[in-house]
């Protein structure tokens, strides 16, 4: 019998002073059995950094045809495609062809540096892609089945709090 996903309920209050976006989101997010807590939190951070009413989680690890998050128009066009990690060139090309904007968030700095050295020349031809590295050491300690998080974004930094701890997250732009 296969291990099933863990379902996490997240009450997320976002105050993004950079984009003037202030909203509370009640999220139900599945955590794949093979997904570590840190990667799960990286998905949430990617959501926070781009939050909107239309942004939603996809099947993620369970599907090769979809990104981790996307934002679609009413006509089912993809406005925003968000991937995590170090996708290969074929996947990036596909994303850039299908979406108006593509954002890749890396989260393991050693792997990210090697990947970036291999990909940066290949990515120059795409005008609709941004690449960031998420520095979020220790955020995996926030993961619980029911989370209440406060997210403040100002000057490109993300301040994430729950009732017990506080974390400062930075996004370093590669491209």
Description of the structure:
- This protein has helices at 37-50, 89-98, 109-123, and strands spanning 6-16, 21-31, 55-57, 69-72, 78-84, 99-106, 129-135, 146-154, 157-161, 166-173.
- With 175 residues, it is of the alpha/beta class.
- The protein has a single domain (6-173), classed as Restriction endonuclease-like alpha-beta roll domain (Restriction endonuclease-like alpha-beta roll fold, Roll), CATH 3.10.640.10.
- A ten-stranded mixed sheet has the order 2-1-8-9-10-7-6-5-4-3.
- The termini are far apart.
- 26% of the residues are buried.
- The mean pLDDT is 93.
Blueprint (SSEs and pairs):
Elements: E1 6-16, E2 21-31, H1 37-50, E3 55-57, E4 69-72, E5 78-84, H2 89-98, E6 99-106, H3 109-123, E7 129-135, E8 146-154, E9 157-161, E10 166-173
Parallel strand pairs: 1-8, 5-6, 6-7
Antiparallel strand pairs: 1-2, 3-4, 4-5, 7-10, 8-9, 9-10
Short descriptors:
175 residues; alpha/beta; Restriction endonuclease-like alpha-beta roll fold; ten-stranded mixed sheet; globular
Short summary:
Helix content is 22%, strand content 42%. By secondary structure, the protein is of the alpha/beta class.
- Unreliable parts: none
User: What is the average per-residue confidence, as pLDDT, rounded to a whole number?
Assistant: 93
For the terminal residues, how far apart are their CA atoms? 43 Å
Number of domains: 1
């Amino acid at each position: 019998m296969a291990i099933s996903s863990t379902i996490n309920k997240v009450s997320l209050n976002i105050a993004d002073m950079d984009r003037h976006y202030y909203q509370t989101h009640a999220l139900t997010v599945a955590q794949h059995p093979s997904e570590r807590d840190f990667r799960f939190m990286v998905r949430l951070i990617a959501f926070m950094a781009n939050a909107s009413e239309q942004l939603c989680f996809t099947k993620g690890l369970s599907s090769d045809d979809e990104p981790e998050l996307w934002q679609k128009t009413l006509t089912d066009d993809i406005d925003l495609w968000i991937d995590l990690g170090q996708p290969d060139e074929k996947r990036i090309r596909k994303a850039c062809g299908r979406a108006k904007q593509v954002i890749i968030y890396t989260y393991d700095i050693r792997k990210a540096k090697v990947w970036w050295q291999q990909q940066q020349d290949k990515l120059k031809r795409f005008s609709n892609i941004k690449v960031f590295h998420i520095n979020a050491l220790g955020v995996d300690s926030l993961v619980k089945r029911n989370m209440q998080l406060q997210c403040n974004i100002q000057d490109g930094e993300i301040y994430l709090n729950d009732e017990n701890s506080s974390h400062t997250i930075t996004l370093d732009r590669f491209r």
